[in-house]
Write a structure and sequence with these properties.
The chain is an alpha+beta fold. Helices cover 49% and strands 12% of the residues. InterPro entries: ArsR-like_HTH, HTH_HxlR, WH-like_DNA-bd_sf, WH_DNA-bd_sf.
Length: 113
């Protein structure tokens, strides 16, 4: 009998393939503007927040900020703060972020057809 605190058994497809590891990735990338942000940041070495906003004019400042925080927590984006006046913060994809972007490219190409 399963313990009430133990996680449920993974749900698998009929062929036995378990897609559970994708849950976190799908949850992160399915949020509003997530894939666009990965593409925008990945197309540049690094970007400041205002530059990201300029590329993604349909998104609110709070949505962009929230996605960037989520990406940083997930290890997809690095945030570098420079001790300057005025303060400067730049965002760049990490190695994992670049891998996600590379894997999204075929999907984006397919979607544009």
């Amino acid at each position: 009998m399963a313990d009430a605190t133990s996680p449920p058994e993974p749900t698998c497809d009929v062929d036995g393939t378990c897609y559970c590891p994708l849950t976190g990735v799908i949850n992160t990338l399915s949020r509003k503007y997530a894939m666009q942000l990965v593409s925008i940041i990945g197309a540049h070495e690094s970007l400041r927040f205002a530059e990201i906003e300029a590329h993604l004019t349909s998104a609110s400042t709070s949505t962009i900020s929230k996605r960037l925080d989520e990406f940083e927590e997930a290890g997809l984006v690095s945030r570098t703060q420079y001790n300057e006046i005025p303060p400067r913060v730049e965002y760049a994809l990490t190695a994992d972020g670049h891998e996600v972007r590379n894997r999204l490219e075929p999907l984006l190409e397919w979607a544009s057809k």
